UniProtKB/TrEMBL annotation:
Name recorded for this polypeptide: Protein translocase subunit SecY
Family named by the database record: Belongs to the SecY/SEC61-alpha family.
Function field: The central subunit of the protein translocation channel SecYEG. Consists of two halves formed by TMs 1-5 and 6-10. These two domains form a lateral gate at the front which open onto the bilayer between TMs 2 and 7, and are clamped together by SecE at the back. The channel is closed by both a pore ring composed of hydrophobic SecY resides and a short helix (helix 2A) on the extracellular side of the membrane which forms a plug. The plug probably moves laterally to allow the channel to open. The ring and the pore may move independently.
UniProt keyword Cell membrane, yes or no: yes
Gene: secY
InterPro entries listed in its UniProt record: SecY (IPR026593), SecY/SEC61-alpha (IPR002208), SecY_CS (IPR030659), SecY_dom_sf (IPR023201)
Species of provenance: Longimonas halophila
């Protein structure tokens, strides 16, 4: 504990790091205030009563967690940063199949700037379309309650406000990344998720009849978090030998480095894809209240603690882990880059054999990662079966816990780099964070 306290004191000794952290916290406050500013023309009291009756479950509840409660509260940041995430995923997927985007990826910094600009334009287009649906749902939703006070021009004003809000949140994320600490977009999502954690813990404590059981739940939660940290940091290192080359009077190369292959190269995206698809049947079923088949189908996909739901969710997460890894990690590109730089894997010929070797390693390493990710995805179902309340069970695994762990690790690595650069000890003097190993 003394070493941890010393690390926190060192943070405040570094003026640049202190300013970055305070700047980031200030933008967090602005973001959280926007979540409580209701859209013009919406009766906030009636809306809260409707949300209390619906319980915030299903797809809307899932989206609400990512924006810190602004979605169900009809805040000006109701769509949050999610349209930007959607646009970024689309651009990333197109970069794997569209030649134009593949060319931009090879152009270095200039290509990244162009792709960022295209992502911003696509974000505005996606936000405009989503805000139209959001406004229509508020005005003509099947709640049976008049949520909108002044329906005149409500859709137009809502589209303008929500689009402006998303663009502003996107700007906040970019400011955090450039002038603050950590990845701004990821941190804004994390702050929205953390906003639900205190209430979930307090409600679980109030509902628990035994204090020992509550402490046991906290202990299990800590162990699960530690396991996710371990797998998130897990890598398979492939040795790469670089040949010696003489440039002038200096000799370069001749050293052995390592190509890191992550156990969980796909990150949290497979669970997000799988969970989004799992919510589609129940959402579609809501539009067919007179169809017994659709209602039964919707009920089956709404029972997130059921065995059938968990099995399908596990298999979809397993599939999307391999799918997303295949899209984002390109063994052929790794092999070509290694060949251009004069590197080779000992015992493997450069070129096609190197690409096949990396692909085989990636396939084998992804198998335990995909199984673990699928298990993490269905952990909330096990927690609910064990008696944990649904609100707190969502933090036992799934999207929320993975995002919290990975974003926290990324932010700590950046803080660690600032401290080590100024000859201070980081958070973990004997730890194995990738930033310190590097």
């Amino acid at each position: 504990m003394a070493g941890l306290a010393e690390s926190f004191r060192n943070i405040w000794k570094v003026e640049e790091l202190r300013k970055r952290i305070l700047y980031t916290l200030g933008l967090f406050v602005i973001y959280r205030i926007g979540a409580y500013v209701t859209l013009p023309g919406v009766d906030a009291q009636v809306l809260s009563e409707v949300n209390a009756q619906s319980g915030g479950a299903g797809l809307f509840g899932f989206l609400d967690m990512f924006v810190g409660g602004a979605f169900l509260q009809a805040g000006i940041f109701a769509l949050g940063i999610m349209p930007y995430i959607t646009a970024a995923i689309i651009i990333q997927l197109m970069g794997a199949v569209v030649p134009y985007f593949q060319k931009l990826k090879r152009e270095g910094e200039e290509g990244r700037r162009k792709m960022t600009q295209i992502t911003r334009y696509l974000t505005v287009a996606i936000t405009s379309l989503q805000s139209i649906g959001y406004a229509i749902n508020l005005q003509y939703g099947a709640t049976g309650t008049a949520i909108v006070i002044g329906p005149t021009w409500f859709v137009v004003t809502t589209v303008i406000v929500l689009t402006s809000g998303t663009v502003f949140v996107m700007w906040l994320g970019e400011r955090i990344s450039e002038d603050g600490i950590g990845n701004g977009i990821s941190l804004l999502i994390t702050i929205g998720i953390i906003a639900f954690l205190p209430n979930a813990v307090i409600n679980e404590f109030n509902l628990s009849n035994n204090f020992f059981i509550f402490l046991l739940e906290i202990g299990m939660w800590t162990l699960i978090t530690g396991g996710i940290v371990l797998v998130s940091q897990g890598i398979r290192r492939i040795p790469v030998q670089y040949a010696k080359r003489v440039v002038g009077r200096k000799v370069y190369g001749g050293t052995t480095q390592y190509l890191p292959i992550r156990v969980n190269a796909a990150g949290v995206m497979p669970i997000i894809f799988a969970q989004s698809i799992m919510f589609i049947p129940s959402t579609v079923a809501a539009f067919f209240p007179d169809s017994p088949f659709m209602q039964n189908l919707g009920s089956w996909f709404s029972d997130i603690s059921g065995v059938g739901y968990s099995v399908v969710f596990f298999l979809m997460t397993f599939f999307f882990t391999y799918f997303y890894t295949a899209i984002t990690v390109n063994p052929k590109e790794m092999a070509d880059t290694m060949k251009r730089q004069g590197g080779f894997i000992p015992g493997i010929r450069p070129g096609k054999q190197t690409s096949e070797f990396i692909d085989n390693i990636l396939t084998r390493v992804t198998l335990p990662g995909s199984i673990f990710l699928g298990f993490v995805a269905i952990l909330p179902a096990f927690a609910m079966q064990a008696g944990v309340s649904q609100g707190f069970a969502m933090f036992f695994g799934g999207t929320s816990l993975l995002i919290l762990v990975q974003v926290t690790l990324d932010t700590l690595q950046q803080i660690e780099s600032h401290l080590l650069m100024r000859h201070y000890d980081g958070f973990m003097k004997s730890g194995k964070m990738r930033g310190r190993r590097g």
